[in-house]
């Protein structure tokens, strides 16, 4: 492998859990670029007036989320000394007529891209209106950097927006094919009936980074079976490293997959599920779990829609590769369909469908807020589907609409054949989530094994489901295995004999502090349900290369255990 290519990293789930990868989990330095300049003082949610943020406490809980929330990299656009080695710079200011220097910039972004040719090029773009469709080329190295002032002496995409609107609405606003390295950072991207940003991948060690962009009002607006419309579409795979952070992705319309963000599946097998052994309760185990990951963090993914009439997937986001999805706000995403909201995974869906290959993707979903997402089918917030095994922890899942706010489903088709039905079975380990005030049951399981520990489920409403877990009849040979311990959840113990030390909190009037004001911390940590323990041990639903450990912090970033050595149930540790 060439030295400038990134080796596929091994996924190892540890104490956070951490996913080891070449992308730095600090979220701001993963492209081996200079240190970010100071973050904007506008605040993490100061994106535009009238932005709906939900409950009054949520913004502080999602610190650093949104445009500018983790600061801005300079890329050498204001200071040549900060330009990465081996890269050149070219400058653009709307309406100029120069040759691309800082003192005499080009007038369009397209001119700068054409002039770059095959070179590693940083395109520094001043604020202004750019009516263009940008083709960034094939297998190129490009960094597009927006939000600079007119003299290229300061950078703040909120204060100095670079707005790129599709000149031809039937084409993507920005498009790249199999980029060797691509960064798009600090743009407003709008006005396409296809995708705002489209980056295909060949599974050939590409690096794709999207940061601090406002991607809005792209895609479809009517019922459709198209898959090429919506906000962001990024190819994924075994060797493609994806970093999507601090973006605002809103009001985009998709067809079948990913109205806001779609991250494609692998063209090569990622993990391997042994379907023949009797390990892990007879349902197989993961022998390998290698490959790159998609790091999706600190985004606001809001009010995106899907319009496919049959069964759309993932209105907010769809992902088909290994992923770490953390510190995002999923709000108001809707599987509109043809008007009946009949879809799955309104907030987020993980779906790695490799058919008979039994390839498995691992999706970690942690420290996110899911609110107001809507589907009348299944999975209003989180849907783990078709060989996407998951570790879901420290999420706040509230006020969503649809059965199974969190669901795990297999990929069996008409039957789950093989020993104990493990051909197509899926797995999820669900720990320390708060699932409350949803129109629909908290959890749903179909053709799968789900392990639940230390979750709080309270005041959810579903006229079709008795209790707060929907154990759905799926394919023959794939009966569900729902087990775990130490949950506060409304169930019939006889129906779920493998869930132990689990009690309902529905009889407690104030189990959580306030549904009205969206304060979902436990009101009384010493209430009769004993919602804390001096240890926190759980058994993962599927064997991974490195054993899962209890989360080391809570949704708000407080340490687990607390100073007294206790773990509280739910997303909050205190």
From TrEMBL:
InterPro entries: PbH1, Pectin_lyas_fold, Pectin_lyase_fold/virulence. Signal peptide: none annotated. This is Right handed beta helix domain-containing protein. It comes from Noviluteimonas lactosilytica. The lineage of its organism: Bacteria, Pseudomonadati, Pseudomonadota, Gammaproteobacteria, Lysobacterales.
